[in-house]
Amino acid sequence: MSLISLCKQLEDPRIDRKKEHSLEVIVYIALCAVICGSESWNEIERFGICKFDFFKRRFPDLVKIPSHDTFNRFFSLLKPGYFELVFRDWVSELCGKYEGVVAIDGKMLRGASKCSKDNPFGKKGFKLHMVSAWAVSNGISMGQVKVDDKSNEITAIPSLIKSLDLQDCIVTIDAIACQTDIAEVIIENNADYILALKANQKNRLMDVERWLDEMDGVDIDRPVYRSHYGKYVTEEVSHGRIETRECLVYSPGKIMESMLKDKFEGVKSIVRISTERLEVATKKLSVEKRYYITSLGLKPKEISEAIRSHWDIENRLHWQLDVSFREDAGRKVGNAAQNFSLINKIALYIIKQDETKGSVAAKRKNAGWNDEYLFKLLNKIKI
């Protein structure tokens, strides 16, 4: 099913006498404009006017391009919940049932143009904080929820998890989500979790550190340890340094359940990731240790790879939205800001389906200059 077909399932928020342009025309033009670098409603209107012949071929009955006010009013009226449901149906259509690592993380759209020295977070009601679920293997956002003004990510994450089909997935979340309720809702949704332990769970962290650090220098391949301990080590040489990563997993079975299950539903193992970085030129050595709890058993390789892949959401989603799409500089508010955030994610996914060499920024420019290339991008995902 194409995105246009999915858009037709949305409830149009406009009254009949205000429907000069169809819903699919407005959404399609906006999406194409964002793919090609537009960042505001005015830029979307100008892009549409410049590319009128392009859109006329797609919509033969098109007479004129909607104004910037029309785009603004439409996306301000459009309920983000409806748009989000359409997006999730589209993702399901494209990717089918996903069973890989799902990284969950939040991002604040600060609206830099509204910030000042005295008010660094912008005017009241302007900032937008979104929590996204990122399918690492497919490189696509599976869904997003807004963090309410009077809550935080801890309350938003369970809502996002419940709305997605995460059966047989491994959910990775940073330390803020190392909470009883979040572990429980992940298990209830037939998924596994890897949750980072930091200062917000001080006592648990101290216990885990002690249990694992006591094993330094011990040969865990000995039969007495082999049934409860596992280790996976990788080494990389790049950028003038040698990086060694060791994943140590302790899974004592029923003992673990008695120690931590009262706090974390389904927990089976505790994990330590030790990273040593040796600067070849200076011989400087740095060591970092991070600790996790997980519902996975004695699977050090799988756990290590899942933990490392969590940062994919920062590098391939949030960084691109900040740098390539300049999302933090946006001046939109309310529903329009939330809906535009989703359009950015859709545009990013479409651009990334093109495997030719070039940055996201370069591909956006090329799509704006070259109609054939834009058609190529859209045809890849059957829009």
Automatic annotation (TrEMBL):
Extract the InterPro entries matched here.
ISAs1_transpos, Transposase_11, Transposase_11-like, YbfD_N
UniProt protein name = ISAs1 family transposase
Pfam families the record matches:
DDE_Tnp_1, DDE_Tnp_1_assoc
- Domain named H repeat-associated protein N-terminal: which ranges? 8-91
- Source organism of the structure: Bacteroides acidifaciens
Q: Name one GO biological process term.
A: DNA transposition
| One term of GO molecular function | DNA binding
Q: Where is the Transposase IS4-like domain?
A: 100-349
Q: Which domain of life is it from?
A: Bacteria
